[in-house]
Structures are given as structure tokens and as C-alpha cells.
Write a structure and sequence with these properties.
By secondary structure, the chain is mainly β. It has one helix at 105-115, and strands spanning 3-9, 16-27, 30-38, 44-53, 58-65, 68-74, 78-83, 90-95, 99-101, 124-132, 137-153, 160-169, 175-181, 184-188, 191-196. A 15-stranded mixed sheet has the order 8-7-6-5-4-3-2-1-15-14-13-12-11-10-9, with helices on one face. A hairpin with a 5-residue loop joins strand 3 (30-38) and strand 4. The chain is globular, with a radius of gyration of 16 Å. The two termini are 15 Å apart.
């Protein structure tokens, strides 16, 4: 069960956003990721709880950011309920999308798991609902994912396969690279893996 810590920063101006302390693991029904978010000063900022089924679909998502909360799942596309800080209003949303995304590294693992690309695959288009910080506002985004390289590296625990993805935002054409090993993000825009206490899990 990998556990560790990511540092998060603004991918454009590199402003520190804090840290994400996580643990994740495959299970009998899929994969689960839980984390707590802290601010640059160390204060509690929020949490992520994401569970996927064997096909990589989100069967449960729970996000907390400040006093905002989102609960969602794959249902007729993706469906979610967003609750305001007072707790008196809840708004429901539904979009014909494949999955969710956001600033957490969990969503990069989830999208890669959903698409199951190979280096010979064509670039694949995916529609996602992004929840933006700090109020978890939903926004539908279209991306293109391609697995451009998959390379095994020798480690003390045996070979570690690192996948390099090219991700393109289809509304702006902006491209960036994501490096993933098993169920851990090694590097991505705005994300740095600072500490890992056990090797990444591998998916069948």
C-alpha cells in the first residue's frame, strides 16, 4: 500500500499550494486513494477519497475543500452533489462525461487507469468534470491522452515501469507531460513526489 507525500504548486507561477499526504491501494473491487491536504503553513485544507472499479470508473468520490464538499460517482455519465459552506444548499449536477478530475494526483492515476493506453495506441479523447479549487466549482473539460513511452527502471525492489503520457487540453491546445509508475505520480505540472514510503502498486 503506497503512502507518501506530494508537494503541490501553481503550474504557471509556481506559487506553493501546500502538500497532499496520501495512501492508496488496489483492492478486490478496483482501487482506492485517500489523502489529506495541508496549506503551505501546515494547516488542514481539505481531503480526497476516490474509489474506482476494475474498469477505472469512479464508483465513489468525496472531496472536501475548506467548508465545501462534493460527493460523486459514475451514474448516467457522472453525477455529483456539491454542498455550500453553510450546509443549507446542495446542488446536483450530471454530465455525459467519462470521469472526474481536479488538482489531486489521484485523478491522473484514475484517468490513466480508465484509458488503459499502450504505446501503440492512438491519442484518446476523454471528457472529464473538473472540480476547481478552492470552492470545488464543476467545469467540463476535454483532454487528449497519449502514452508516448513506457520504460522499466531497475530498483532495489525489482523493475519499476514508468509510463510517460502526453496530455493535451483540447480547448487551449496546451500540452504537458505526466510520469506515472503504477499508482503513483512521479511528476506532473504542479505536482512533485516528495516522499514515498513503499513501492507503487501494480495493476493487473
Amino acid at each position: 500500500m503506497p503512502r507518501g507525500r506530494y508537494s503541490l504548486h501553481d503550474p504557471h507561477d509556481h506559487t506553493p499550494l501546500g502538500e497532499e499526504h496520501f495512501q492508496c491501494a488496489p483492492g478486490p473491487s478496483g482501487w482506492r486513494y485517500v489523502s489529506r491536504l495541508t496549506s503551505p503553513s501546515g494547516d488542514h485544507r481539505g481531503s480526497v477519497d476516490l474509489a474506482l472499479d476494475d474498469l477505472g470508473r469512479p464508483i465513489r468520490l468525496e472531496l472536501h475543500m475548506g467548508e465545501w464538499q462534493v460527493r460523486g460517482a459514475a451514474l448516467d455519465g457522472v453525477t455529483w452533489v456539491r454542498t455550500d459552506p453553510t450546509g443549507t444548499h446542495a446542488t446536483e449536477g450530471n454530465v455525459r462525461a467519462h470521469a472526474f478530475t481536479g488538482t489531486s494526483p489521484a485523478f491522473l492515476i484514475a484517468t490513466a487507469r480508465l484509458l488503459r493506453l499502450t504505446p501503440s495506441s492512438d491519442a484518446t479523447r476523454v471528457r472529464l468534470v473538473a472540480f476547481t479549487d478552492p470552492v470545488l466549482a464543476p467545469r467540463t473539460v476535454d483532454q487528449s491522452w497519449a502514452l508516448v513511452n513506457s520504460e522499466a527502471h531497475a530498483t532495489d525492489n525489482g523493475p519499476l515501469t514508468v509510463d510517460e503520457y502526453q496530455v493535451t487540453a483540447l480547448d487551449t491546445g496546451e500540452r504537458h507531460t505526466v510520469h506515472i509508475a503504477g499508482d503513483v505520480v512521479l511528476a506532473a505540472p504542479g505536482i512533485e513526489l516528495e516522499d514515498l514510503q513503499s513501492p507503487p502498486s501494480t495493476f493487473d
